[in-house]
Fold this protein.
Amino acid sequence: MLSIITFIGFTLLVAGVAWYATKGTDESSADGFYLGGRSLGAVTIAGSLLLTNLSAEQIVGLNGQAFSEGILVMAWETLAAISMVITAVWLLPKYMNKGITTIPEFIQERFDENTKAILSVLFLIAFGIVLLPTILYAGSKAFITMFELPELLGISETTSYWICVWSIGSIGIVYAIFGGLKAVAVSDLINAIGLLIGGLLIPIFGLALVGDGSLVDGLSTLWTENQDKFDVIGDTTSSIPFGTVFTGMMIAQMYYWGTNQAILQRVFGAKSLAEGQKGMMLAAFVKFLIPVIVVLPGIIAWHLFGSELNDADAAYPELVRRVLPASLLGFFAAVLFGAVLSSFNSLLNSSATLFGFDLYKKFFNHGASEHKAVKAGKFFGFGLALVSMSIAPFIRYAPDGLFSYIQQALGSLSVPILAVVAIGILTKKVPAIGAKIVLIGGVLMYLVSLLYLGPKMIGSALAEAEANGITDAGQLAIIEAEAYPHFLHIMGILFVINVVIMLIIGAIKPKTEIYVPQTTEVIDTTPWKYAWIAGALVTALVLSTYIIF
């Protein structure tokens, strides 16, 4: 009962603060609803960036992979810090100098309106089919495991998923559709602080349990008895072979932090370019420390009850349930609930932005006022939420775990989108037709690789191994891994192919009107003078982790 009371109390506190903070913002205008009136400061931006990214699917999914494989999965977090630095010092000045609201808006300015429409549709597909459902599923899994809901409510596990998904989704709709970006960002900041505190408590209590009350002894025991879990170099059969760090891993990171509308919308709401850069650098520094929350608990869970769990994605919520006292369990559940809502809200708000700002006026109502476009975006966001809530419960049947599912599914979109944005920035003569071919063809090439070529070649290799009498599980795993390139390598290969296609088209049929970037006066676009120094320090910290481990 105490855990439920603290859960409800903290959740209502966050909602009240968010409502109070947004009372003066005009949510009927585009800047007000989509960008929080361009009034966000560095700390609010950093908190919102972290919580938009650090949600249940990240915490549950990565700790699940750490439970199975160890510390090598920290690459998803530490290398993200480098891509955030690159975004802050190179991409943000180019974006914010134009005063844009969306990434597709930048693409329209560089290429044309139809290219922007294709990009907007791809973003909406990624949000509705991949990201929103996985956020709802991961949050539901955490609550079902922590509170043992099937036993508590006397219902089946399947019914528990449907109840949790639709409860979280319904509350998220209220925040995102009726509150706008500022409500999301303010609640994000509060929940980010709570999540960092609660997230640090889990490894602390976990290590104390391992070390019979001593954190030092717990860490020493964890290190000495689980050496295989502290190898940062992934082998051929791991989810992150070391070579992928230099290919598709950085493609995925740059797409997420450098071109993803849901992430960059927080920074576009900054009161100035300098505040946006400070916010992203602060978030990058914290991101470097995040493996303590999203990787270490998974290894602790393996040490404590590795053989008991059949489902790696249940490792983190099971650890939380076992190590936290009832009062803190309610508090942590509340901030985790806030993290789930944050990511869900952020994507819904961005979806409403993309539809209302980029698609509604072009395809549905050419003469629509700003107020009508915002209203249309809200209606679309509501519909997309219902679709994602209907898909989410079925993700529990994904074969390779939650986090792997997310990354593989997003690869189809991240590769062509990053290629188009990069070429759009680096060249002036590549025409719109090149971008359109890559946006459509790039998605198709990746899907053919993922759904046809990969399974076909792996199946043939395993069939040949079986015919040769090979039955050893280790040998079969190596044969499977070497039969077809890892999906992250495929991302790297396809990125190069997409870039080359655009450059060839640009050479054969160059753009007749040379692109000249426009500068905005909406905000102060003076860069932060310490951006490069801060970026160098964060990068050095990230590289040091690979030297240590």
Residues 27-36 have pLDDT under 50 and may be disordered.
